[in-house]
């Protein structure tokens, strides 16, 4: 398996010796935000500059899912299996109901428009957590150039009962990917300030999640030495699988680099899926890839 590089012997148990990296679909401008739906055994992802979302169905191939998509970026599922999407163009987070209608989850904070929600996760209590960097308003390529109304780039939580939006982290340059540890006691958030500033942040931070859903004990989990941690997910053992330039890197819960999978294009994001949740789906610049692993993703 030439695409896999082992930095630690423990990585062998997390991979499959005869598994191979498969390019499932190509032809995007910047593929992002993959999410797997087990009931239909399919993946959705965003092609942000082309203003569309795509769908890949096992055995049937790809087809357009939503066009236009409002320059959709990150996607996830909620507890009822509904699609939750970050939209750059409309500067909001939406939920697609089972009947296909769109519900706005969040589009403002304290009376001012959000920047351009980027990535999103749903906690087991039904709350929706999302990052809000400015990528969708700094040019017309992935959204529409506009003035930033918020005083910074923040991380938010949407209460599942009241719908109220609360700010949970306010000291990031460009908050981006985020994921909970399997037991949800830790929230990992990446800072990709280095995307437009060579001296900017390029790390993943970790926070303890208190009982009242406040974030405590902030610390740098790991620096990304090559590229940026644009998107990442945890497996059932608590290892973090993250984008890193043209590869997916895997870090232990103790931030040890265990290994990496070389993709060949700049990686944006990834998600676990497949019938056993052990298939890693990877969005990388123009393409959607997949590879089977020896470990399952955290649900």
Primary descriptors:
globular; 299 residues; four-stranded antiparallel sheet; mainly beta; 0% helix; single chain; 27 strands; five-stranded antiparallel sheet
- Output the radius of gyration: 18 Å
The secondary-structure element order is EEEEEEEEEEEEEEEEEEEEEEEEEEE
The coarse overall form would be globular
* Amino-to-carboxy terminus distance: 27 Å
Low-confidence stretches: none
Q: Give the DSSP E fraction (strand runs of 2 or more residues).
A: over 45%
Largest sheet: 5 strands, antiparallel
Question: What's the β-strand tally?
Answer: 27
The amount of helix comes to: under 10%
SS field, number of helical segments: 0
Structural class: mainly beta
* Strands in their spatial order, largest beta sheet: 1-24-23-22-21
Summed over residues and divided by their number, the pLDDT gives a mean of 97
Q: What does this molecule look like?
A:
0% of the residues lie in helices and 48% in strands. With 299 residues, it is mainly beta. The strands form seven sheets. A five-stranded antiparallel sheet has the order 1-24-23-22-21, with no helix packed on it. A four-stranded antiparallel sheet has the order 2-27-26-25, with no helix packed on it. The mean pLDDT is 97.
Short note summarizing the structure:
With 299 residues, the protein is mainly beta. It has strands spanning 4-6, 22-26, 31-37, 42-47, 52-57, 61-66, 72-77, 83-87, 92-96, 102-106, 108-109, 112-113, 120-122, 128-131, 153-158, 165-172, 175-180, 186-191, 203-209, 215-223, 232-234, 240-244, 247-251, 257-262, 267-273, 279-284, 287-292.
